[in-house]
Specification:
There is one protein chain. The protein has 18 helices and five strands. With 442 residues, the chain is mainly alpha-helical. The strands form two sheets. Strands 3-4-5 form a three-stranded antiparallel β-sheet. A two-stranded antiparallel sheet has the order 1-2. The structure holds carboxymethyl coenzyme *A (CMC). The site of carboxymethyl coenzyme *A (CMC) has 17 residues, from loops.
């Protein structure tokens, strides 16, 4: 808080309401802006004008560095303290005791389910895992080397054409139906995309298996009559889905909310989320970590690599975060899950390089002074690689887990009476009132 703001807040607090006093030095006028929940409303700036026909003052905030776009009760993050909570429950407790579908219920419904609620929820999701046969044909139409994230993006958007009732977003029954369908079908679409990239036949869901177990079945089943997932791998995957389930107003969630604010069906809104997650600054850092570890090759090369990072030659991928200025709580849990997966598939030698990088970085003043700690991507790629996944599948795995968060945030948006179609302003920097020049005179 600036000194001025603190003084205003103190003055405001004296008469019960917090406020901010702003003096427009162009006119000498002073305005009182109410402060609620530590924020002022951007629209309150519009009364600040130099003349009657002035549009009014706007705030300029590229990349939304300091703008709250909604009120949300879904996920809480304290980046300085390294805290992540879903509906108030610490991520560490959920990762240890819960399952992905229970976490999805928590995010979407706002409370932990009773046993009966959980059973009904799991049953509903399980019996909706199949996709329409035409969707299978639709996916077959992609080129043999199509990126699985592009296939997921296209096919989840295509789901809206199979469920025209999804357009009725004001009907709670329709919203519930699409919620179940999205949660249930996302792993099916993801697994089909993977099998397509391998030229392998698509595997239908097996409703005897858990959410993660069935996903492993659709990914890896070959000639065996029944696929039996290793419980350690099944659990590790479930934990990964839990850790990726929500992260408040990140790029893809903002995309879902922004597109959803037009009133479009949730499949189209979630397709926008998948598109945003496709970008390397969002869902792709774990791939960069894996490439970095492979390039370092041996533990002995770590000190030299760190020196290069400190000299500014490159970044230590999987380190640092815009929000976390402390150990990303998800990274701690993933580190443990990686060990569980290695017990099954054998130790990935790259993990030793990762441990050494972390050990040196956490003792080094360059990283300590900049508050650079491992983030969620530092260890997740190692698990995915152990599962035999190509790097193209990494963001797809992220998308499966994040679907529950996207839905929870979309449902909150639809019910939020304060929300309207998202429509930012701009500062126009182009030409004005230029006369059209006929082609011959250009
Ligand atoms: N390695 C070395 N130096 C770094 C790193 C890093 N990974 N990250 C930040 N720094 C330095 C940076 O050079 C700067 O130093 P100085 O003050 O001397 O110029 C300082 O730390 C602050 O960096 P910044 O770029 O201003 O921080 P940011 O909040 O804009 O960037 C970040 C956050 C995640 C983009 C960045 O830390 C980064 O590039 N990390 C590596 C990529 C990565 O792991 N991304 C995954 C993010 S988590 C997944 C998700 O949420 O989608």
């Amino acid at each position: 808080m600036s000194t001025e703001t603190q003084e205003s807040a103190a003055a405001g607090a004296a008469d019960g309401a917090e406020s901010l006093s702003v003096t427009d030095n162009r006119t000498g006028k002073t305005y009182e802006l109410p402060i609620t929940d530590g924020t002022v409303r951007g629209i309150d700036l519009r009364q600040i004008k130099v003349s009657e026909d002035d549009f009014g003052l706007m705030s300029y905030d590229p990349a939304f560095m300091n703008t709250a776009s909604c009120r949300s009760a879904v996920t809480y993050i304290d980046g300085d303290a390294g805290i992540l909570e879903y509906r108030g429950y610490p991520i560490e407790q959920l990762a240890e005791h819960s399952s992905y579908l229970e976490v999805a219920f928590l995010l979407i419904k706002g409370h932990l389910p009773s046993q009966a609620e959980l059973d009904a929820w799991v049953h509903q999701v399980t019996i909706h895992t199949f996709v329409h046969e035409n969707l299978k044909d639709f996916m077959r139409g992609f080129r043999y080397d199509a990126h699985p994230m592009g296939m997921l993006l296209g096919s989840v958007g295509a789901l809206s054409t199979f469920y025209p009732d999804a357009k009725d977003i004001q009907d709670p029954a329709s919203r519930e139906a699409q919620t179940i369908r999205l949660l249930a079908k996302m792993p099916t679409l993801a697994a089909f995309a993977f099998r397509h990239s391998r030229g392998q036949p698509y595997v239908y869901p097996d409703n005897d298996l858990s959410y993660s177990g069935n996903f492993l079945n659709m990914m890896y089943k070959m000639t065996e009559l029944k696929y039996e997932p290793d419980p350690r791998v099944e659990r590790a995957l479930d934990v990964l889905f839990i850790l990726h389930a929500d992260h408040e107003q990140n790029c893809s969630t903002s995309a879902v909310r922004s597109v959803g604010s037009s009133g479009v069906d949730p499949y189209s809104a979630v397709a926008a989320g998948v598109a945003a997650l496709y970008g390397p600054s969002h869902g792709g850092a774990n791939e960069a970590v894996l490439r970095m570890l492979s390039r370092i090759e041996r533990v002995e090369n770590v000190p030299g690599f760190i020196e290069g990072v400190k000299a500014g030659n490159e970044r230590l991928m999987g380190f640092g975060h815009r929000v976390y200025k402390n150990y990303d709580p998800r990274a701690k849990i993933i580190k443990k899950a990686a060990e569980d997966v290695f017990e099954v598939f054998g130790r990935n030698p790259l993990i030793d390089i990762a441990h050494e990088l972390e050990r040196i970085a956490l003792e080094d003043d360059y990283f300590v002074s900049r508050k650079l700690y491992p983030n969620v991507d530092f260890y997740s790629g190692l698990i995915y690689e152990a599962l035999g996944l190509p790097v193209e599948m990494f963001p797809v795995m992220f998308a499966i887990g994040r679907t529950s968060g996207w839905i929870a945030q979309w449902l909150e948006l639809v019910d939020d009476k304060e929300q309207k179609i998202a429509r930012p302003r701009q500062i126009y920097t182009g030409a004005r009132t230029v006369d059209y020049v006929p082609m011959a005179q250009r």
